[in-house]
Amino acid sequence: MREITRLSDDKRTRRQMRGVIILFSFGLIVFSQAAATVLQYLLFHVGIIRHPSLTFVQSALLVGGVSVIVGTLLSWFFGRYVLRPFDALLRGMSGLSVGKYGIRLRERRGMYLRAYKTFNALAAELQSVEILRSDFINNFSHEFKTPLVSMQGLVSLMQHKQLPEEKKKEYLSIIEEELSRLSMMTTNVLNMTKLESQGILTNVTRFNLSEQLRTCILLLEKAWGDKKLSLSIDMEEVMIDANEDFLKQVWLNLLDNAIKYSPIGATIGLSLSLAENSVVVSVSNEGEEIPEAEREKIFTKFYQVASSAKKSGNGIGLSVVKRIVMLHGGSVAALREGDRTVLRIVLPTA
To answer: Looking at the whole model, is its pTM more than 0.85?
Structure first.
């Protein structure tokens, strides 16, 4: 009902605006013709112009009639053709206001071309955001519900059946994994919300970046140990001025992704080196190649590569990484080097 009311109001507004413009143009034309009539009177009165077969009144009526006819025709043409593109733009904006993001305007040459291109770009962006939002809600609710149902079933089994000690340990291990996944998911959502509202970097301290990376590797030891992954580490000792807690989230997200997308028994690479006024951190894995067209998109909030849909995740982790890196004045990129996918972070040293 609210949508119908809004559409009705928008339609009424467009009609009123069109009417005002038409009346204004009509009045302008009539006024100009009336001025011409007055001028004709003055010229007639002083004797500059004379017509043997027409009186002044007849001449004035003729000019006035022609003025009305011409004004009417020009106003109709102006409202019908000149304002039609403007009316289409208003209709499109009305559609966007009620969530019809699939609207596109036909781009024609003329003064409205730039406005139409801008409108279509805006509509496409809003449609993309809406699709990502819908996908995120569906995926997030599924990702959140699945571990809860799993844990509920395991707890129920442990309470109502006499289980061997080995089974209990197995169930407890599964519950621990699911809780860890839920915790990571919730943390990423909360962090993204916080980071989006933060415009400047705070709590900057000087710390040993190499030591922080080693700590993150140890925190994820169980995850990469369970998949029998090997580590290839090449790090210089680097001190950096940055937000320590934020960068810890970056490394945990990158390493967790590398573990998640690596096949069993593969090797994860981690390197840290100094460049001119910057520090470079690279995390690589032997997982599936990310299509080149999608390498920038993976840092967009809620976006997931189609081939990774079967993996656990919600498309937030890398968007958190990008936001934190941007707050530090750095850059992040996804690359393909040989048979390895590399995520490279470049941060200023100060």
So the answer is: no
Cβ neighbour number for residue 83 with a 10 Å cutoff: 17
Structure confidence by residue, pLDDT tens digits, 66-91: 566 666 666 666 666 666 777 777 78
Residues 175, 217, single domain; the answer is: no
HEC sequence for 213-271: HHHHHHHCHHHHHHCCCEEEEEECCCEEEEEHHHHHHHHHHHHHHHHHCCCCCCEEEEE
Domain at 251, CATH number: 3.30.565.10
Range of the domain at 180: 132-196
Element (H, E) at 305: none
- Asked if the structure places residue 115 within a domain, the reply is no
Take residue 126 and report the two structure tokens written for it: 């809003």
Distance CA 179, CA 156 (A): 16
Domains identified in the chain, total number = 3
What backbone torsions phi and psi does residue 60 show, to the nearest 5 degrees?
-65, -45
Could you tell me which residues are beta bridge partners of residue 331?
346
205 closest CA partner among 252, 236, 248, 235: 248
Q: How many helices (H) and strands (E) does the chain have?
A: 9, 7
Q: Measuring CA to CA, how many Å separate 65 from each of 56, 83, 164, 244? A: 14, 26, 105, 82
Residue 220 and residue 330 in one domain: yes
